[in-house]
Specification:
The protein has five domains: about 140 residues, Calcium-transporting ATPase, cytoplasmic transduction domain A (Distorted Sandwich); about 55 residues; about 300 residues, Calcium-transporting ATPase, transmembrane domain (Up-down Bundle); about 160 residues, Rossmann fold (3-Layer(aba) Sandwich); about 180 residues, Calcium-transporting ATPase, cytoplasmic domain N, CATH 3.40.1110. Helix content is about 50%, strand content about 15%. It has 35 helices and 28 strands. It is elongated. The strands form four sheets. Strands 10, 11, 12, 13, 16, 17, 18, 19, 20, 21 and 22 form an eleven-stranded mixed beta sheet that branches. With about 900 residues, the protein is α+β, with helices and mostly antiparallel strands.
């Protein structure tokens, strides 16, 4: 108070004005922004896009207006899509600002006033009530049964108890600062008063906002690979165009003719459909994932999910439901299990296989009645979508009462509340007084040792009996065993009174009748165990990174199979993590799967350390404290139901159902998308390389041009269009989720890809060169006009190359598996695309008006059959190459 120059009556109006001028408004600083025009222009900085822009201009020069329009449309669509994605991502910091409390209750000039939260200043006295969102960081002056939900900042699943007493000096995390309330958190119980110590960017909330703004976004693995491909292709384009033109001029061709022909080769070498295929494959994957409750904000994130090697997952609300649930009851020596989870009333109390009901079990009835009546929480909503107003523990007790067979409304009517003695940290219990059937009935819940020490009798099915020392030891041992299972344990008791006494603890909370223990926890999601197992099978490491207690985190990890049953896992806490050197942390990451009591900077450090090891990191989260790590990770995954707006805006992907299992679907879709993009690249580059080799090879051998410029462009447009796009939506491979993750640094040009590119392009060169030489020099038709002979040879090359590339499209459906294993007809889009391309080719060759435009000659049936037979020979050649690749992979695996 003195340091902040505040007083018991609060600040004066003059002091407020002075401090607003000195400290500024209580709001987060706006992020550094780039203009919408700047974001749009940035989409054209990709090297591949620049090459495509040049190809568009060259196509206009060559008179290929349709080709140019298609390329330009692809460029524009990609730019608009990229602009929208970046513009949405830049709204993360704005979402942080909107999460601030809109108003605050403060004491000023001796009066309680409601003021806009942005006008709160250091030294203000906050008046705190249940349900208030705290406007700024503040030091508590008074705290009466005060509890605060700090999960958005700390990840704690339970509200934190607050106190006015100072803590011992030391390094404590925000979650352990019991004498402070933090801006952006919510008061769930009690009341208090606090003096504001920090506002705006100086609060814990603001510090996280600063971390978020400081994190630079990085290119995804897919974007990096596309940049690499763009650079490779640019070199190929320039080398081919320059080399071919120069060679032609040296051989006597006109420089203008060679320039146009060289440009045609360059255009053929550029995969102008690449952005469309990548975007189309990602968009279709996004649509599939949306149907599986995964909403993607940035398209490359879909593919990134497929090469993820580590998932750093929060516990509360991600692995668990973020809803407290009663799991065990210990009544008169019986350990009873409670089924169901969360606030939905489905479930029952069981002893072994037998289902119990309060109507037939007086001890269970008493426990259920205490759970319902010694309770200030309320549940609303229908079915499994019920929501809680109040303390999560009390919400779980309400559900427990229902599962035992009692109705909360009826219990409240039968036992109307007369008075209560609130929970205090000294007594460690809460008592409510009710009008009973024969007087006043007191219901109590609290710490087991505290309630047990005030109990003299125990309730059994035969009635009340004296509580022996042996029974006390047994109860305390059971309470300890429950606590070791990471359950929050409460003791339940009651007392019958003749009349309503003065509501003083010493007069009521004595000579109690002990009823039993209840163990509660935030349970794992039903799908979490299977999802973790699937990740393990797919070779993906799962790390739990949470702000919750180490024991709770370890217990949940065991329950979902993150660590083997019975094994005591090693847990590293936030303070321990801070003391680790970078080298020690890297070593710990090889062994430790659980990081508890972590702060935002700890999560950031973990993500950075994992990425430094070459891992592709996915980070899941729901609270504000997760946002910086989500932004730094290769892919941030936010929870759609429990997640804050900050996390949703920062993340690249949102799980609409908050279901960890949805991540598995995201991995599967991501892997399938990468497979399809790779199929497209094998098809496109093998065909284009074959074209370039046969065309330039003819130069070296002194032969005429196998194809003229317009034919080159038509082959390019026909084969690189619909068939290539159809490969981008190929069905998933059956072994997709049994493969280990791709090495993060692995190029798209892997060994199988390189082998197939070499085999296919060389074989295409062989058959196309042979066809051209046969028809150009042997003249099987016996034509007398040399121009007609060359025209027929060029037409045969044109037809053969189109047919061979259509057959090759089916070959490229897998880089290692046989076409007959993946199923030749499973991709109906590819079948249709090939049919359309063949019809176009047929029209260009056989229909006289188009034949004149494209300089072709109608072929005979025998010539068509020859072209088809030659194109089909590529099937056994590629099948043999794949067989060799499979044997090599199998041998490497055995080795």
């Amino acid at each position: 108070m003195e340091a902040l120059e505040s007083q018991a009556t609060g600040l004066s109006a003059a002091q407020v004005e002075e401090r607003l001028a000195r400290y500024g408004h209580n709001e987060l600083a706006p992020p550094r922004r780039i203009s919408p025009l700047g974001i749009f222009l940035r989409q054209f900085q990709n090297l591949l896009i620049i090459i495509l822009m040049a190809a568009t201009a060259l196509s206009f020069v060559l008179g290929e207006y349709l080709d140019a329009v298609v390329i330009f449309a692809i460029l524009l669509a990609c730019a608009v899509l990229g602009f929208y994605q970046e513009f949405k991502a830049e709204r993360a910091a704005q979402a942080l600002r909107e999460m601030a409390a809109p108003v605050a209750a403060v004491l000023r000039d001796g009066e309680e006033k409601i003021v806009p939260a942005r006008e709160v200043v250091p030294g203000d006295l906050l008046v705190l009530h249940t349900g208030d969102k705290v406007a700024a960081d503040a030091r508590l002056l008074t705290a009466i049964n005060l509890m605060a939900d700090e999960s958005v900042l700390t990840g704690e699943s339970l509200p934190a108890a607050k106190q006015a007493e100072a803590l011992p000096a030391g390094d404590v995390t925000p979650g352990d600062q019991a004498c402070m309330v933090l801006g952006g958190t919510v008061i769930t119980y009690g009341r208090g008063q606090a003096v504001v110590t920090a506002t705006g960017m100086n609060t814990e909330f603001g510090r996280i906002a600063g971390l978020l703004q400081a994190v630079e976004e990085e290119h995804t693995p897919l974007e990096r690979r596309m940049h690499t491909i763009g650079r490779v292709l640019s070199v190929i384009c320039l080398a081919v165009a320059a080399g071919a033109s120069l060679l032609g001029v040296l051989r006597g061709y006109g420089w203008l003719e060679m320039l146009i022909w060289g440009i045609s080769l360059a255009v053929a070498a550029v995969p102008e459909a690449l952005p469309a295929v990548v975007t189309g494959a990602l968009a279709i994957g996004t649509s599939r994932m949306a149907r599986r409750n995964a909403i993607v904000k940035r398209l490359p994130a879909v593919e990134t999910m497929g090469c993820t090697t580590v998932i750093c997952t929060d516990k509360t609300g991600t692995i668990t439901r973020n809803e407290m649930t009663a799991r065990l009851l210990y009544l008169e020596g019986r350990l009873l299990e409670v089924s169901g989870s969360g606030y939905a009333p489905e479930g029952a109390v069981r002893e072994g296989e037998a289902e119990l009901d309060a109507a037939g079990d007086p001890v269970l009835a008493a426990a259920a009645r205490i759970a319902l009546l010694c309770n200030d929480a309320h549940l609303y909503g229908e079915g499994g979508a019920r929501k809680l107003r109040g303390d999560p523990t009390e919400g779980a007790l309400l559900v427990l009462g229902r599962k035992a067979g009692l109705d909360p409304e009826q219990a409240a009517r039968d036992f109307p509340r007369l008075d209560e003695i609130p929970f205090t940290s000294e007594r460690k219990m809460m008592t409510t007084l009710h009008q009973g059937r024969q007087g006043v009935w007191a219901a109590l819940k609290g710490a087991p040792e505290a309630v047990l020490s005030r109990s003299s009798r125990v309730l059994t099915r035969e009635g009340e009996k004296p509580l022996s020392d042996g029974s006390r030891r047994e109860i305390l041992a059971q309470a300890e065993a429950m606590a070791h299972r990471a359950l929050r344990v409460l003791g339940l008791a009651y007392r019958d009174l003749e009349a309503l006494p003065e509501a003083a603890p010493d007069q009521v909370e004595t000579d109690l009748v002990w009823v039993g223990l209840v163990g509660l926890m935030d349970p794992p999601r039903a799908e979490a165990e299977a999802a973790v197992a699937t990740c393990r099978e797919a070779g993906i490491r799962v790390l739990m990174v949470t702000g919750d207690h180490p024991h709770t985190s370890a217990a949940i990890a065991r329950e979902v199979g993150l660590v083997p049953p019975g094994e005591e896992p090693r847990v590293i806490t936030g303070p321990e993590l801070s003391r680790l050197s970078d080298q020690d942390l890297l070593q710990a990451l090889k062994e430790v799967k659980i990081f508890a009591r972590v702060a935002p900077e700890h999560k950031l450090r973990l993500v950075k350390a994992l990425k430094a090891q070459g891992e592709v990191v996915a980070m899941t989260g729901d609270g504000v404290n997760d946002a910086p790590a989500l932004k730094k990770a290769d892919i941030g995954v936010a929870m759609g139901l429990a997640g804050t707006e900050v996390t949703k805006e920062t993340a690249a992907m949102i799980l609409a159902d908050d279901n960890f299992a949805t991540l598995v679907a995201a991995v599967e879709e991501g892997r399938a998308i990468y497979d399809n993009i790779k199929k497209y690249l094998i098809f496109l580059l093998s065909c284009n390389l074959g074209e370039i080799l046969v065309l330039t090879g003819a130069f070296f051998l002194g032969m005429p041009l196998p194809l003229i410029a317009i034919q080159i462009l038509m082959v390019n447009l026909t084969t690189d269009g619909l068939p290539a796009l159809a490969l981008g939506v190929d069905p998933k491979a059956p072994d997709l989720m049994q493969r280990p993750p791709r090495p993060p640094r692995e190029s798209v040009f892997s060994r199988p890809v390189n082998v197939l590119l070499a085999v296919i392009s060389m074989y295409l060169t062989l058959i196309l060169g042979g066809v051209f030489a046969y028809f150009c020099y042997l003249n099987p038709r016996g034509l007398t006009d040399p121009e007609a002979v060359l025209l027929l040879a060029q037409t045969m090359v044109f037809v053969t190359i189109v047919l061979a590339e259509m057959v090759n499209a089916f070959n490229c459906r897998s880089d290692t598996l046989s076409l007959f294993t993946v199923g030749p007809w499973r991709n109906r889009f590819l079948v249709a695309a090939v049919a359309v391309s063949l019809l176009i080719t047929l029209a260009i060759v056989q229909w006289e008006p188009l034949a004149r435009i494209f300089r072709t000659m109608p072929l005979t049936g025998r010539e068509w059959l020859l072209a088809l037979a030659l194109s089909l020979t590529i099937l056994p050649v590629v099948e043999a190459a794949k067989w060799g690749l499979r044997r090599g992979i199998a041998g490497k695996g055995r080795g």
